[in-house]
Design a protein that fits this description.
By secondary structure, the protein is of the alpha/beta class. It is built from 17 helices and 19 strands. It has three domains: 160 residues, P-loop containing nucleotide triphosphate hydrolases (Rossmann fold, 3-Layer(aba) Sandwich); 202 residues, Rossmann fold (3-Layer(aba) Sandwich); 88 residues, no CATH class. Helix 1 crosses helix 2.
């Protein structure tokens, strides 16, 4: 049974109680602790319970957030859990500096630090943002405080962790475990026609938004989004992630033109418009919200039934944050729909992929799993045991026509000399979009029927992605290939 923090205040789930106790245990030797829990697992509840403990002992508490929705949700939860008044430090809102608990906009507090000189506990919500200069300046202003960073994704865009900012890490259950416990929704992920990323340059570790816009026609893309929505999740409440404000606006317009009620929201949308839109969306009056850079975190609408991802990203953290938006359970919600119009799921894996988080980064424990497309288009993982049971038969390169025969031989040489898992080959082939012969050769290599390879090729060809010539090998592998 779950235990209670205080009578008639809040009841934590077992895993939340375990995470809370783990944080306090870490604080015995490490004053700066990061806590990881998947989206929808109840991070706000946990840090509210911790804030209650500090406030009970007379210590002041500060919670940092970077967006209005996060500030509002945190303040409301803290008041409910602690039973104490909560001040909000944000431009345009009357301050209450004497209140024992404060929720602050990072952008506002960084200019008012002298007004708030002392806190026993500083909590950073969505702590994967804490590398920014504003966060660092605030955290450095309270060197004597206990510090807690909470996030679903303790990883930077470049794949590194947070060893420079935190001394300890405590992790909760995985997405898969929370689904099995009934605390997150089951989901089905469908791979739609992928957006183009070839030739798009990288800026700050991720695809350039301008480059993605140039590589993908907004008229065609928005039409693909509407078509996929109608096919996979008609009449469901859906949140769209777009690459830019202009694309998000065009997507919302395309939905409305198709008779599906939609609205565009971004960080510049007035607060009252955003609040009204979210209320209408929760009621089902609006079916689709298209957004850019706004709801990667913090959207707490359990009735959200689908997400549509039109935002290619190299960031595992961003991918998991976007996919996780729809995983909160709700009455009548049998499963969530994830529509991926990118190759994010191929690059990063499904949300349920087993990952070990550390302060140095993340380790995937089932990296040799393959993704397969079912007849209805759903993407599922294939267990490693299913691969191991089938003997690998290496295909002679001469059987393939040049230049694809040479390309196939080269990536096999790289995979075997580097000891890469078969999933690496799969991603290389998906990116290359080869003719059917290569897919059949890959099927033979796995010990599968040629029909399996042909079906993969048909999916690729149907999406119009087959290419005439092979791509160059990755730069790190060119000196290995024969």
């Amino acid at each position: 049974m779950a235990s209670q923090i205080t009578a008639a205040t809040i009841q934590l789930r077992d895993y939340q109680e375990a995470l809370l106790q783990g944080i306090f245990e870490q604080w015995k030797s490490a004053p700066r602790v990061m806590a990881q829990l998947p989206t929808g697992g109840g991070k706000t509840v946990i840090f509210s319970a911790i804030a209650q403990e500090f406030a009970r002992h007379g210590d002041r508490v500060l919670v940092l957030a970077h967006r209005e929705e996060l500030i509002t949700q945190a303040a409301a939860k803290l008041e409910t859990v602690t039973g104490k008044p909560v001040g909000v430090i944000k431009s345009g809102i009357a301050s209450a500096p004497l209140f024992p608990i404060q929720v602050a906009s990072v952008q506002t507090l960084v200019n008012r630090l002298r007004e708030y000189p002392d806190f026993g506990l500083v909590v950073t919500d969505e702590a994967h943002h804490s590398t920014a200069k504003t966060y660092r300046k605030i955290l450095e202003a309270y060197p004597g405080s206990y510090q807690l960073g909470v996030t679903a994704t303790p990883i930077r865009t470049d794949g590194s962790g947070f060893r420079d900012l935190f001394d300890g890490l405590v992790c909760g259950p995985t997405v898969k475990e929370l689904i099995e416990l009934g605390h997150l929704s089951r989901f089905k992920l469908f791979g739609a026609k992928s957006m183009e990323t070839k030739g798009v340059r990288t800026v700050a570790g991720d695809f350039s938004a301008a480059g993605l816009a140039k590589a993908n026609n907004v008229v065609k893309l928005s039409g693909d989004l509407v078509k996929a929505y109608r096919h996979h999740c008609p009449d469901r409440r859906c949140l769209v992630f777009a690459i830019s404000v202009a694309y998000s606006m065009a997507i919302a317009a395309r939905y409305n033109a198709a008779g599906i009620s939609a609205i565009h929201l971004d960080g510049e949308t007035p607060s009252d418009v955003r609040k009204e839109a979210l209320a209408r969306f929760a009621e089902g009056e609006i079916k689709v919200i298209s957004n850019c850079g706004l709801f990667g975190e913090g959207l707490d609408i359990p009735a959200l039934e689908a997400v549509q991802i039109a935002r290619p990203t190299k960031s595992l953290g961003l991918w998991l944050q976007m996919a996780g938006r729809a995983l909160r359970p709700a009455p009548g919600k049998d499963f969530a729909i994830l529509l991926d119009h990118t190759k994010n799921h191929m690059i990063h894996g499904l949300p349920t992929r087993k990952r070990i988080w550390t302060l140095e980064g993340v380790e995937n424990l089932d990296g040799d799993r393959r993704l397969e497309r079912k007849p209805d288009g759903e993407i599922v993982e294939v267990e490693p045991t299913e691969i191991e049971e089938q003997p690998a038969q290496l295909v002679e390169v001469e059987e393939l026509e040049s230049p694809w025969g040479e390309w196939w031989g080269n990536i096999l040489a790289v995979q075997q000399s580097r000891g890469y898992k078969v999933g690496w080959l799969y991603y290389q082939i998906c990116d290359a979009c080869p003719p059917a012969d290569v897919w059949i050769a890959y099927a033979n290599f796995l010990g599968r029927s040629p029909t399996w390879g042909i079906s993969r090729f048909i999916e690729q060809e149907t999406a119009g992605e087959t290419k005439a010539t092979p791509p160059p090998l990755p730069s790190y592998a060119r000196n290995i290939a024969p």
